[in-house]
Amino acid sequence: MNDWIPSEGIVYTDELRDIITAEGSVAVLAGAGSGKTELLAQKASFLFSTGKCSWPNRILSLTFKREAQYNIKKRVDQRCGTYSTRFDSFTFHAFAKSIVDRFRCLLDEDIRPKDNYDIVSKDAESDGITKLVMRQIIELSINILLKNKDIMKILTDSYKYVFIDEFQDTTDAQYSLIKCIFDGSDTKFLCVGDINQSIMLWAGARTTVFNDYIEDFSASYKLLVTNYRSSEDIQRVLTIFLEYMKNQDTLSVNSTVSSGGGIKIFRDEAQEANYIANRIKNMIESGIEESEICILTKQQSSIYTQVIRDSLNNLGINNLDMSDLQDSLKEPLGEIFSLYAKFLTCPEPKNTCKLHDLYLYINNIERDDTQEERVSSEFYHFVQAQKRNIDDTVTVDFLLLKINEFITFIGFDKIKAKWKQYKSQAFTNNLWVILELHLRNVFLKTASAIDAVKLFTADNAVQIMNIHKCKGLEYKSVFFIGLEDQAFWNYSNAKFENDCAIYVAMSRAKENLEITYTCHREHRRTQYYDNRASSCDKVKSVYHTLISNCLLPLDDLTK
Question: Exposed end of the chain (fewer CB within 10 Å): N or C?
Answer without folding.
Answer: C
